[in-house]
User: Fold this.
Amino acid sequence: MNSLQTLEPALDEACCAPSGQPVLSAEDAQRKALVFKALSDPNRLRLLSIVKGTGDGEACVCDLTEPLDLGQPTVSHHLKILVDAGLLHREKRGTWAYYSLVPGALEQTAGLLASL
Amino acid sequence: MNSLQTLEPALDEACCAPSGQPVLSAEDAQRKALVFKALSDPNRLRLLSIVKGTGDGEACVCDLTEPLDLGQPTVSHHLKILVDAGLLHREKRGTWAYYSLVPGALEQTAGLLASL
DNA sequence: CACATGGATTGACATTCATCGATATAGTTG
DNA sequence: CAACTATATCGATGAATGTCAATCCATGTG
Assistant:
């Protein structure tokens, strides 16, 4: 499973210098990948766009199923992924659940790219 | 159902989005999701980080397999995904293939989030 | 309380994906 | 040309994912 072979430096200038830079750790990469994975679905991007485009900045599930042409359980599933990723906020008022953008979440996500 | 008219894998110019339309179209969402899908894997994030952290800004496959602890075919596969997403540039010199960041690609991707 | 409604959860299913081993291709060297 | 090296591609496989139908939970209303 793990073939850790001793690679002798027989290659001089052929391959470039060893990049001993502070490379992204496996844990950080895993954590950042979760956010991008939440953004990697077109329907989830549209959900964010719809929520952002609403006048009051929030929308309930019943408003989101129709424009996406998806079933209610599927929309609810996507919304949960976006909430878990820290992009959306969920607030239940009465029977309805209102979803809104977490302030600064998109900007913070954009910052992840700069800090790669 | 959905008429895909201009589905071009070319690089998108995310600047100057009309922003007149209230909702991200299905085609735009699909296109943007491809870029985030390329970023949704921790190993690919680490690949970008390593390439970015290299002194000369480029790295060959032989430099990337070891720090990721992945097989050469797997690394080559991930690199192809990053190239297809427009994030990496591939240049073959002799036997080696050198990968480098596409200038402005990360910033442009960050802009996708603002134009949601 | 009985019933209706909005939303979340479960289970199933088909598709996609990440990974590896084997192999093919291209450039270099003897 | 033959051998070697670096990389890409192919085929297979196990895991993850998106979707839906059915169901469950919570909160209203008669």
